[in-house]
Amino acid sequence: MMTIMLLIYFLCLGLIMGSFFNVVALRIPRGLSIVHPPSSCPDCGTRLRARDLFPVFSYLLTKGKCRACDARVSGLYPIGEASTGLLFAWVYWRFNDSIPELIVGILLISLCVIVTITDLRYMLIPNKILLFFAPLLLVSVLYQTQQPIWSHLLGALLGGGVLMLVVWLSRGGMGMGDVKLLTLFGFVVGLPQVILVLLIASFAGALIGAVLLLTKMIKRKQPVPFGPYLALGVLISYGYGNDIIQQYLSIFY
């Protein structure tokens, strides 16, 4: 019973934090304060009231429109909120027996949600966001890790190094934000899990990119954000990386 109650608590906490992460992700790249001014309609500027600030539910009740001007509200808002809620619930379910790992998971999810939104909206992964989360993740990982420190250092070096090579070979076809992001992710999960992050991100990016091309939602050679796929890869690797690698190795040994 207690587990179910805590699961619901983390779900609700995630919904609330997801709403805040939307504000962070949509304001920081534009150099705006995350505190002032209060949230408002991007079209008419009408300040949102308390009834408009309930995560997900306010969007559904207003049918995705501003109460004042009837303008459409971006679907990124409820998607970000719902995703954060579900991910917070998942990370509690996955790591409820280890508080240090749970803390790392919450920090990792928070970073992933924010950079996914900024990359989708602005094709940008702001340094301010990475610099805020980097020390928190570094300290948290070093406190709870059961892997040798060199594993985390090599994970960071390999992750950042591979994408740096891609940037060089593609002559700017990939942004430095992705390099910095995978460097941090590589430190969090270490080696060999960072390889899994790269494989998942590359496969997911190629698959979804192909679907978008076939449906003509994007054009050939059109830049697409890679941050969301790295976020997907690191969350899967953090939650299930060891199990996936062990299952793979069991095929040969």
UniProtKB/TrEMBL annotation:
Residues 106-209 form the Prepilin type IV endopeptidase peptidase domain. The chain crosses the membrane at residues 6-26, 75-93, 99-118, 125-143, 149-169, 181-214, 226-245. It comes from the Bacteria. It is found in: Cell membrane. It is a multi-pass membrane protein. GO terms for biological process: signal peptide processing. GO terms for molecular function: aspartic-type endopeptidase activity. This is Prepilin peptidase. It comes from Candidatus Cohnella colombiensis.
